[in-house]
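Lecture 7 notes. Example A: sequence first, then its structure tokens.
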Amino acid sequence: MSPAQRAKREQAREAAKPKPPALVEHGPVEWFQAWRDIAPADLAVVLARQDPAGLADGVLLEYLAAVEKVTASWQGLRVCGLGEFASRRTEHGSPLMGAEGHDRGTVRELAAHLHQSQKTLVPELADAVQLCAHFPDTMAAMGEGRVDLGRATAIVRGSRDLPAAVLGEYEQAVLPGAEHVVRETVQDRARAARHRLHPQTLQERHARAMEHRGLWFRPQEDGMAELSVQTGADTAMSVYNLVQEHAKHLKTLDGETRTLAQLRADVFTDLCLQPPATAATAGTGDSSHGEGSIGAPVEAAAHAVGSAVNGGSQASGPASAGAAAAGQGGLYGPAAAGTGSAASGTAGTADGAAGAAVERSVGEVWGGGNVKAFVAVTIPLATAAGGDEPGELAGYGPIPPGMARRLAGLAKSWLPVITDEHDQAVIVAREMRHPPEWLKRQVRLRDETCRGLGCRTHWKHCELDHTQAWEHGGKTELDNLVLRCKPDHLAKHNDGWHTTQHPHGLIRHQTKTGQTYTSYPDGSWISHGITPPPPPPPDPLNDTTPPPF
């Protein structure tokens, strides 16, 4: 860290410290009249003594505003702490140094101790480092409780990729009066200031930004999920307008009761999930195929589904559908009446799997452009036969039984996995370095996501890792295999952490600073405080023991 950066950090730290309360010149007043002049630390003590239920409406409004002030100040302290922690992990020239200017293991260690996800902490830590290094006035405003974390985040993220030399001018253009406007207004100011101060043209910036386009899946409650896409503004607007026109046309049909928002969702998913045989019928406005269709018959979609290709645990096998988030659109419309019989047939197939109680299936569904997607579902046999126990959608969680049956009905076959009396897969691969497919499925079913502390990377993007390395005697068995994403897999070998695995997926982690944690397959972990790190193995080249002769 340069001397200038260190000076700015010290300035920000001083600014974030609580200030002494101001004196009131006109005699005693109530706290709700003077809270703006009270330092956040002292104000927190005053607010702790108040009972919101006993406050009049006007006083309650002042109470909430005062709470916002205290919250902003404490958020500033957290930012200072994160920035300081990162500044202590800067070993220039180290192979572990990341592009952010600190050790790659910094986020992992913070995530473990704060019980936060790495995905959440990465941008928060980047913001904290930038704020502490280049935005002293913003940090001072947070310390005084005038600017909260939301507005400070809008300021710092609006400055992305601006040269350090113009950050002072940028801050002075965005920060003044930020406490009097909403966060979105601060974002608008930041966007305008960045555009004015950026050395590159908008065309150049857009070309670079397009390299970060993508599509993301986010689980939600009650069997729902959200898809979000980031792409060029012209493309996004064209897609939206196309979907909107389809939806507005359907809205004019007799008997149509769906809202425009519901129609947009159904139209979009149907356009994505049309099988090749019916792609030409999309957008015809034929609503005879049920609530979620725009002209692609569900029956044709089901016939386009290929055979199952994978399996799972217990009486597991392949079932599927590429539209878990489609809700009532396309393949999920009421016209899919035939899926009940398909599910019943599937259940009959699985009944022969030595009394197993659960099926897992992975199948394929066609989308536009002859593209296939695969989704796995685990379903109890009773549910497949018409029961009301939820299914389990890989990468999401519990789904309604009807949705599980619709997915399962698309599979043509099931691949059972033999289990022992403890419902564990029979271990026949201990001496093999590379686990067979059925054992990989067992690990994925148990872990579901990366086992790195605070990491929720889906199993599709993870690697199987021997906790005790194969070359060091580790066996290829369930109790020595875990899922790790690529960064966590590399970090395991490079960051000085010590990891051991126990039955039922329990893993013990010890960081290089001595913190110890126990993690479980459900994504939880507990801290055991600081313990001495394990002693290093003896170095045979430095053995000073005299020879026995």
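Example B, a different protein, same format:
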Amino acid sequence: MLAAGESPAYLGPIVALLLAAGLIGALFVRLRVVPIVGFLLAGVVIGPHQLGLVPDVEMVEAAADIGVMLLLFTIGVEFSLERLAKIRRFVLGGGTLQVVLTTAAVAGLCLLFGADWNVGVFTGFLVALSSTAIVLKVVAAKGATQQPVGQASVGTLILQDLAIIVMVLLIPVLGGQAGGTWEVVRALGTAALVLTAVILVARKVMPPLLERIARLCSPEIFLLSIVAIALGVAYLTSLAGISTALGAFLAGMVLSESRHSAHALSEIMPLQMIFSAVFFISIGMLLDLAVLAQLWWIVLLLAVAVVLIKVLTTFTAVSVLRVGPATAVGSAFLLAQIGEFSFVLQQTGAAYGLSPAGMGDEGGQILVAVTVLLMTATPALGALGAAIARRLPRNAAAEAAAGLEPDTDTRDRVLISGWGPVARNLGAYLEANGVPSTVTTLSPDLAADAESRGHTVVRGEATKATVLHEVGMDRVKLIVIAENDSEAAVHIAHVLHGVAPGVPIVVRPTDVPDITGFYDADVKRVVDTHRAVTEPLGGAVLDLLDIDHTHRGHPDPTVVRHLRPDPDTACAHMEDLPPVLPKSPGCTECLRKGRHDWVHLRICAQCGFVGCCDDSPGRHSRWHADQAGHPVVMSAEDGENWGWCFLDEHLVTDTGAAPAENV
């Protein structure tokens, strides 16, 4: 049974699809273009109309259906009701006006060229939608999520995604298979009932359900539950006549009201990325380059027309809120493409005999070509809009009046990864000193405890991008990794250093610290649990014994030191020296004996023992070298950067980085 046989028929196309997506996506990342554009072009290349590497389109479409559901689900999770409330004026005002104006403008042009009114409105629906996935990635890449342009764009996208519900319900009316005003009222009423049900479930059912699941502290069960909720709600809404994609979006909105929304998003995001890649590849596979070669001039003409229409309508809609011309122009160019969910709408319309501009299959090909072209051009359009906006006056007062938060990139808070007794005391200390803190933890009970003490809490792992986005790393001034073993702490430190390379990291592992791992992760301070307890205890005992134990307080026992001598001048004993943590803030042996009469201090480059020099009475640095067989030391004195081998009596310059600065 395990012998090699014929490879499964589906394996070749899947490998071709994933390889093309990975290679072309990586190329576009190197070119600083959002990888979604690469996925679209990968689909064009391997599709049945070109190379034909994936002839079974049905299999790809099935995966793409799951992809669009998970994509809409994650977008729904990010669009919480609380977030909607913050920018409700913009969503309900500017967003609604943008959809209405764009639909009306496109419908008017279709009527002008002889199309029926229902075809014109349907085509207007297709053009009115923008690409939520691409715009959000472009905004995030620019770090403009909290800027007025980013918030204005997000507000419009929220309304567009909500408007899809009404558009889908109106398609049977536009297709002539449901008649009269009553059907329109029924469709709108159905949308209202569905949204009401979503709000009720979001507020009453989902929070306690997810709380019970999260208490299991099992990432596997949590992920399975989230996927089950996403696809299960999508299936149930499909039974009510609403598309599975919209059902998944509503499931995300339901989940967004839970305190575990960030955790859920972080767990499902890897799956969403894979299936979304398949979704965008499937869109590219729809494009026939032969048709494009014949109709290229129409595609270019319509692409220019779409950009002009959407820039004008979006600019008008945003300007109505008096946010200033700079914000309006930046948002208008960011939203000037056709969105991925237009294909969902197109497929729904095709079932009722509707096609873009009434052009049938040819119209579908033109829509795909225009969409792929404008999606590819979105980063360039966004840059053009930003360049124009910089030349226009910015109205801060108008932005504030419209409910848009200004860009406040101030690093003023501490991120605490993990919560327990030590982190709890640290949080209280920070609060007493007026320093705000954000806590990340997976445990619902610990999260509730941190919240009860007034801290901002984000549920989830600090290594997940969505959790860090929720934290707001642009505001973090210092990172403390507490309540983790060394292996987990090293992993978290590496991730956080990559996300925020300029932010210092303090680590307090619960077991023996992995000094090399922390050094490689550029950790600035390592608080050894045993020393952190022993030193204050020893100080308290010596105080009660009336023994003077004051010392100079160096070297800092939380700063990792590493002697890296010049390899051309180093002796044989200086090879492969590890990073070390100084064992004490003074001569280790002198402090043990209650003495403080050393002259200079040296740190053992092998184990971190701190000893006094040969000019000191104890000469404990040389004593330790003889006792432990560790002949190499480095200077612990400020401004001195050298190492010494007692056996070879050899002095070398330390070529490594200077000790970390105090934080």
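Note on Example B: The mean pLDDT is 79. The first helix runs from residue 11 to 30.
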